[in-house]
Give the backbone structure.
Amino acid sequence: MIWAIMIIAGLFTFVMRFVMLSGIAPRKLPTVFDEARNFVPIAVLTAILVPAVMISEDKNIMLLDNAHLPAAIIAVVVALISRSIVITICVGLGTLWFLRFMGFP
Amino acid sequence: MPLGKHSPNSGSKIITGSARSEFWAGVRDELPLQLGVVPFGLIFGMLGITSGLTPLQTILMSSILFGGASQVVFAQLWANGAPPLFVGASVSVINLRHVLYSASVAPYLRQLPLRWRIALAYLLTDEAYAVSIKHFLERPTNPFRHFHLLGAGMTLWVFWQISTIIGVFASATIPEELSLGFAIPLTFIAIVTPTIRTRPDLLACVTSAGLALAGQGLPWNSGILVAAIGGVLAGWLLHSFKRLKVMR
């Protein structure tokens, strides 16, 4: 079953990469698509990352006693300044380890 | 492979030389980005195993889907027992941006033979697109420019596969206390934060975050899909509203 889903999802992904090169699709995308495009990566990635930072395994929102949250906030600041994925990952993970070391849950 | 009509009489040496230099330029341009790709691949490899996928499933997903964020979501949804249709729909929404990449490179690649367009479409990822579109814009008339995308795409492919494989086999030896899985949200923070430039961008982000938290109770992680669609809608609505005001 998992193989079938994986292959179908892979085919879908390929079609999305190929469609505008296929010669069948119109040369220009509809304007709505063009206008909405900036928001797709922002909305999708935020939807994945926020629960990963703030939701505990038993599906509760964790504001306090959650070392991931301050580490993530520092990572946002570092990302704004450095604009580097590697530096952001290093500082974020470093902060998490430091907070854990200091006894943060 | 060579575009015959551009150089019907020139020797094949010149053609291969030029194609080769474009290919290696693509490889060189792509290499620095591997600093972000390799850790992501390692983490995906480990995450696949901790999500309950077999090593073979995890490794082959990296070539079947070949898209980091969508692979992570696939593994997480699968681990949560989401229905197959929903897993497929979420992966598709996340990969929708590739239609835009495809549209953006189409003017440069449209004339190529079908086998070239199929190969380059498969290799059209965020990182390869980013370096090759820059190259295409700088050298719009180079007849061998597609070799640049081939070089960039193949470089990324090789690094992605190797790092996934290492991640799969390292997952047993890396202690849980290191919380390396946290590198995935950190990667997304690093990608998203610099792209938020306008108020509609910010609204899209905040709406998506709010819906993702509010939608935690929804079955099979469907909060992710609701939040993604809601965020895009909110950003687009504010964008359209602002434009209406400007027009008036």
Q: What stands out?
A: Residues 196-247 of chain B form one domain. The two ends of chain B are 52 Å apart (CA to CA).
